[in-house]
Specification:
The protein is mainly alpha-helical. The protein has one domain. The chain contains 3 helices and no strands. The radius of gyration is 12 Å and the shape is elongated. About 5% of the residues are buried. Bound molecules: zinc ion. Zinc ion (ZN) binds next to helix 2 and helix 3.
Length: about 50
C-alpha cells in the first residue's frame, strides 16, 4: 500500500480549485470532455510532486 503524504497548501488549493470546477462546470457534470479540467488536474498533480 502506498503511503499518502500530507498535501502541501499549494496542492490543496489546486485540488479545491479542481473540485469547484467540476461542481460548477456543465461539461464536467455532463461527463463530457472538458479542456479546463485537464489543465486543472495537471496543475494539481504538479503541485503534489513538490
Ligand atoms: Zn469542466
Amino acid at each position: 500500500m502506498k503511503h499518502l503524504a500530507p498535501m502541501s497548501p499549494e496542492a490543496e488549493a489546486a485540488y479545491r480549485t479542481l473540485l469547484h470546477h467540476t461542481t460548477d462546470c456543465g461539461r464536467c457534470k455532463g461527463n463530457k470532455h472538458c479542456p479546463q479540467v485537464v489543465v486543472l488536474s495537471r496543475k494539481w498533480k504538479e503541485a503534489r510532486r513538490r
